[in-house]
Design goal:
Largest sheet: 3 strands, antiparallel
Strand order of the largest sheet: 2-1-3
Helix content: 25-40%
Number of helices: 9
Shape: elongated
């Protein structure tokens, strides 16, 4: 088995310079391997213009795949391929997989609709759930991710249908002692109340709640229920 790193270049640069850096393992000698890569932008380019103008250069051959991956990582970091417009690469190789941070492309409404239709009625097996759980275990969200998630529902309300679905999905569920402890720690010294100025529920320190009773009200108070009935 051969393990190697390679670079693709265009022999006839049409619109702009284009490169691709990758790592590959194969049974035949790298100089005879016709593989180019699996990157979507690269494959789209080949589909439109063909592969005739692409030149493949073998950079290094290794005895172990890990050595080839490490070389690829170093090259990806050096050229910052994920953000470099001259590269087909849209993600940087890392020791645990590809890193696509900073390369997010917003999805169109049509794209979102197609994704929704593709997943409609799809049932996730227990095996898939276990794999997803194992993948996420120990992974911590960044502060930016936490803020985005926190702000995602600002100014929005669940439809009655969604509320019913949430209620049904949670019916009969019991929190484990670990979950209860986690919730208790998270809520320690905090209170959930209604912000009369922003017209929404907020989580704030108890001291702030007690020191500004005109702005913050209990979620079940007459004032709040009066707003909800309007």
């Amino acid at each position: 088995m051969y393990h190697y790193t390679y670079r693709l270049t265009l022999s006839n640069n049409t619109d702009s310079k284009k490169y691709y850096i990758g790592a590959r393992s194969c049974t035949e000698h790298p100089t005879k391997d016709s593989y180019f890569g699996s990157c979507k932008t690269l494959l789209a380019w080949i589909k439109e213009y063909g592969a005739e103008g692409i030149v493949k250069e073998i950079l290094a051959i290794y005895g172990k795949r890990q050595d080839a991956i490490e070389h690829e990582i170093n090259l990806h970091n050096y050229f910052d391929v994920a953000k470099n417009v001259e590269f087909w690469n849209k993600a940087k190789q890392t020791s645990v997989g590809f890193d696509t941070s900073g390369t997010h492309i917003p999805k169109s409404e049509e794209h979102k609709r197609k994704i929704g239709l593709a997943h409609k009625g799809r049932i996730v097996s227990e095996e898939q759930k276990a794999k997803q759980s194992q993948t996420m275990t120990g992974r911590k969200k960044t502060q930016e991710q936490i803020e985005k998630q926190r702000n995602s529902m600002f100014g929005k309300k669940h439809s009655e249908e969604t509320k019913v679905k949430i209620s049904l999905s949670n019916k009969g569920k019991k929190c484990s002692d670990k979950q209860k402890e986690s919730i208790s720690k998270m809520m320690r010294g905090m209170v959930i109340c209604f912000d009369m100025e922003q017209k929404k529920s907020v989580k704030i320190p108890k001291e702030e709640y007690h020191s500004n009773k005109n702005k913050y009200k209990n979620n079940y108070s007459k004032e709040v229920r009066g707003l909800e009935s309007k």
